[in-house]
Amino acid sequence: MIRIAVIGAGAIGGTLAAWLAQSGEHQVTLCVRSPLDHLEVDTPQGAIRADPGVLTDPRQAEPVDWVLAATKTYDCAAAAAWLQGLIGPQTRLAVIQNGVEHLSRFPQVPAERTVPVVIDLPVERTAPGRIVQRRDGSILVPDSEAGEAFVQLFAGTILDAQTTPDWLTAAWRKLAINCSGIVSAITLRPAEVANDPGVAEVMRALVRECIAVGRAEGAHLPDSLADRIVVWTTRAHPQSVNSLHADFLAKRPMELEARNGVIVRLGERHGIDAPMNRALAALLAAAAAR
User: Fold this and answer.
1) Is the sign of the CA dihedral 191, 181, 206, 210 positive or negative?
2) H helical segments located in 160-252
3) Is position 174 annotated as part of the catalytic site?
4) Does residue 236 come out as left (phi exceeding 0), alpha (psi in the -120 to 50 range) or beta?
5) pLDDT in tens, 172-215
6) Across-strand partners of 131?
7) Distances (CA, A) of 56 to 33, 156, 184, 254
8) What is the largest CA-CA distance in the chain?
9) Fewest 10 Å CB contacts: which of 119, 248, 271, 288?
């Protein structure tokens, strides 16, 4: 029995915990602020239910085989409070968050036991413990011993978990998608907004800046990625709401730094300006402050 602790029961954390619990070979525990009675995910294959263990106090935590940090990036400090109890000599940590700086977020765990995760999983939390999963989803981790062990956790689920020899490029490709999603939060429209020609061109401009900075960081990103992301967004479920949009609507903190600000910040390191990402992030932050 593999012991897995999932920190955070939001849309991503809750969905992963529910799927991991389906095999019967994993002992899954949720580490959360408020207790949950169970998890229920409405998936493309039908609803699944899970009854994982639930901890609400880091002092109750004991070492496990795997820790999955699935909190928002701005909650890393709160997530780190769980690590003292959960991390043993052999425990591995999977960082399942947005952005490209996964390996620097939890320095308490050695790098060789930390697995950065790029996840493409369109899910929305409708209530505590209740989640809608729009399609099957995919997971990419580095091609390493720890990465392969993480992939094996999801054997038998509908989640396509794989290793990749070029995780850096995968992470920047996902960031290119995420940075363009700010248009939904600003316009208060779901994925269908990409069908608007003017909005589509704004998305392309955001992605082109991400491509330039990503290349400077060592990622291999083609020029065609900007057009592909617009097309991909128009083909998504028209009512699909990305997490930035959902957080803005719910008046929660937003991952502006991890999704757009990081492009501006890392661009400055390379002398690359990213005015579209800077401007739209500033506008959305101002709207949220209202």
Assistant:
1) negative
2) 167-180, 182-187, 197-217, 225-235, 243-249
3) yes
4) beta
5) 999 999 999 999 999 999 999 999 999 999 999 999 999 999 99
6) 41, 125
7) 5, 29, 33, 23
8) 54
9) 271
Between helix 167-180 and helix 262-269 the angle, nearest 10°, is 130
| 224/252 same-domain check | yes
- d(C-alpha 94, C-alpha 185), whole Å: 28
Kindly tell me if the per-residue pLDDT of 70 is higher than 90.
Answer: yes
**How many Å apart are CA 52 and CA 37, to the nearest integer?**
9
3-state DSSP assignment of residue 115: strand
209 and 285: one domain?
yes
CA 275 to each of CA 196, 217, 269: distance values in angstroms, whole numbers, following the listed order = 21, 18, 15
Sheet holding 114-120, edge to edge: 53-55, 26-31, 2-7, 66-69, 92-96, 114-120, 138-142, 160-164
Do residues 72 and 42 both lie within one domain? Answer: yes
Q: What is the pTM of this model?
A: 0.92
Q: Which of 130, 174, 208, 228 is catalytic?
A: 174
Residues 65 and 16 in one domain: yes
Instruction: Please state the domain count of the chain.
Output: 2
For residue 69, give the nearest of 117, 2, 138 by alpha carbon. 117
